[in-house]
Amino acid sequence: MPIQKNDQVQLSHGGGGKEMNTLINDLFFKAFSNPILESQEDAAQLQLSGATAFTTDSFTVDPLFFAGGNIGKLAIAGTVNDLAMMGAIPEYLSCSFIIEEGFAIQDLQTIVNSMAEEMQYSGAHIVCGDTKVVPKGCADGIFINTSGVGKIIKQNISVNNLVADDVIIVSRDIGRHGAAILMARDSLSLESELTSDCATLWPIVEQLIAANIDIHAMRDATRGGLSAVLNEWATASNVGIDVDEKNIPVSSEVQGLCELYGFEPFDLANEGTFIIALPRSAADKALEVMTQYCQCDQAAVIGYVTDEHNGKVVLNTPWGSSRYLDLPQGELLPRIC
Fold first, then answer.
1. 180 — phi, psi (to 5°)?
2. Domains of the chain, CATH where assigned
3. Is there a smaller number of Cβ atoms within 10 Å at the N or the C end of the chain?
4. Residue 334: is the preceding peptide bond cis (ω within 30°)?
């Protein structure tokens, strides 16, 4: 019997029998259709050559649905972005679901459809997966694990490659995902249209690579935000990084939430914002490319690499003072991805 939109996930949907077969065929295969997945072998057979990037991530975001996305869109964008940040074409994904008994089929359909839609921005395909159903109370609705494989077409992008006089560019305003999750979780009704920045970054990265931009390092600023990325770079490359606070784009909505809760926008998570380090001579061309694609009209040079205060990040304030921008401490906002 075909699944109905008002149905709920039952333990039998993970039992390996008729109900599970119906769920997989009517929902997952229908949304993620491609020849490799439909071969129904125990493992996907892939054709790989040359340097290959491989990444994995698990998603437990709370709430599952938020302004600008949901756990499904986040799972695809997050994994594809990890590949893109290594200069790799996102090609193959795995996807595993852990679903709590009683989860609404209609919500599952929405999540799966958003995953299928998000994959169109990168051309990646889900080629293998798994479904487990656990008893009610043993999970929080649904958890998703995804892994990704892609061919590296831009070599030598690494956290170890920063050198003095490199410039640091951020692709757009920061902190939107963390702020959007905070609003959804606390049911804040503010007069704003703040949405998560959750998005696939490969189309932008592809254009930077096509323009032959000399990228030294590149990272999407997820958990720990801008602060975490810059501190990881400074430590890994044993350089200092100076950033100018006045040049870092922050929306008024994010700034307002930070003031309300005592957060810093530099520490809040992003899911569609990336940071690049590259030679000063390449900065103008990179900005020109970035402002033409996918919400990068706010792309800006926010700082530079120095051979002073190695391993540290210094934030220069608009008032003429400076302070260290440290790694975030503790769990600022759990389960943001």
1. -65, -40
2. 11-152 (3.30.1330.10), 166-324 (3.90.650.10)
3. N
4. no
